[in-house]
Amino acid sequence: MAVLGNVVILNFTYDVPVKIYSANLLLMAIFLAAPDMPRIFNLVVRHRRTEPAEIKPLYATPAMHRASLVFRSLLVAYAVFGNVASGHARFVSSGPDAPKPPLFGIYDVQSMTRNGQAVPLVITDASIWKRVVFSQFDRASMRSMTDSLTRYSVQVDTTAKTVLLTGRFDTTVKMKLSYTRASNGQLVLSGRVAGDSIVATFKRIDEKKYLLMSRRFNWIQEQPFNR
Questions:
Q1: What does pTM read for this prediction?
Q2: pLDDT for position 88
Q3: With contact defined as beta carbons under 8 Å apart, do 139 and 151 qualify?
Q4: For residues 200 and 112, is the Cβ–Cβ distance under 8 A?
Q5: Angle at Cα 10 formed by Cα 5 and Cα 16, nearest 5°?
Q6: Cβ–Cβ contacts within 10 Å for residue 200, how many?
Q7: Residues of the chain with CATH 2.40.128.270
Q8: Mean per-residue pLDDT for 109-114?
Q9: Do residues 4 and 21 touch, judged by C-beta distance below 8 A?
């Protein structure tokens, strides 16, 4: 109750989007502790001697107890098997060795032209793409120079070399772009965007260079890594 109470307060005051779920867990903890609350209050708050709770047999006969034990064992086995099976399926479909989409990767912009004219990569220009990420499950995201993010669903036609981007939260937003890829990781996207002819060249980023992938676990370190 104490730990979940702190979590609920943090979720509500810092606008974390799991308010109802954490509140439900807190109510469950209160429900479980309710029968023992007078004894807990007596012991923890009033510092008085508290008699233990009277524990009565749950089942009237040994046969009922054995039947309950079998049922509980089967229920636990089912829960464990279900979680292991679903976790394994998830690992196969999205783990490090899972099949990757055709354009999978993180790409940073190198150059961009609009209607045949080179566009300066100004960090205050929200109309310029800064980064595009193609992830699994037919998802993609476009980040502008001002760091605004737009998420898309993706359909890639590897024969026609086109990619259709549809807004995930506004399906009326659509962009159909042609793409070419080079062996050095370069990606070129071209097409009409908001009435303009756009050609953008991107360079793929090596994901292994990110700290989450490159920095290994350390049992002992003399100084904090972030200082």
A1: 0.66
A2: 93
A3: yes
A4: yes
A5: 125
A6: 22
A7: 105-205
A8: 91
A9: no
Task: Give the pair of three-digit tokens for residue 172.
Answer: 């009326």
Give me the architecture of the 105-205 domain, per CATH: Beta Barrel (2.40)
Give the tokens for residue 32: 């479980």
Over residues 38-62, the mean pLDDT reads: 87
Residues in the chain: 227
Long-range contacts of 1-7 (CB under 8 A, 24+ apart): 1/26, 1/29, 1/30, 1/33, 4/29
Q: What's the burial of 163, exposed, middle or buried (CB within 10 Å: 0-12/13-18/19+)? A: buried
Identity of the residue numbered 217: F
141 DSSP β-pair partners: 133, 151
Q: CA dist 80 to 44, 72, 76, 84, 85, Å?
A: 36, 12, 6, 6, 8
Q: Which residue has the tokens 């159909």?
A: 176
What pLDDT digit, counting tens, does each position of 134-179 carry?
998 889 999 999 989 999 999 999 999 999 999 998 888 888 999 9
Token digits of residue 220 = 């002992």
CA proximity to 209, closest of 106, 93, 134, 139: 106
